[in-house]
Amino acid sequence: MNQQDRPYIDSNGTIVIPFNIDQKYHPWNGGQPLSVTLLEINAPKDIWSKYTEKPYPGNAS
Q1: Which of 5, 15, 35, 38 could be joined to 43 by an S-S link, Cβ 3.0–4.6 Å?
Q2: How many Cβ atoms sit within 10 Å of the Cβ of residue 40?
Q3: Full-model pTM
Q4: What is the pLDDT of residue 60?
């Protein structure tokens, strides 16, 4: 899978969800929650906290 086939984090720390990829990645259109996508792309803690209030995986709640 190349970068255009799935969401990715650009050099500015922004998550990019290409419009023409699998609809499951489109949280604005009934797709999976963004937190699930962040898990799939192994987002680091600083990126995770920019996009969700859910606890970072592995942290005690």
Answers
A1: 38
A2: 13
A3: 0.81
A4: 52
Cα R_g (the chain), whole angstroms = 12
Q: Collect all residues with Cβ–Cβ distance below 8 Å to 49 and sequence separation of at least 6.
A: 56
Q: In the chain, where are the structural domains located?
A: 3-51
Q: Which two tokens stand for residue 47?
A: 């990126």
Residue 8, SS3? strand
Angstrom CA distances, 21 to 26, 54, 57, 58, stand at: 9, 25, 25, 29
Structure tokens at 28: 């604005």
Q: What are phi and psi of 8, to 5 degrees?
A: -150, 170
Q: Which tens digits make up the pLDDT trace of 17-57?
A: 999 999 999 999 999 999 999 999 999 999 999 999 999 99
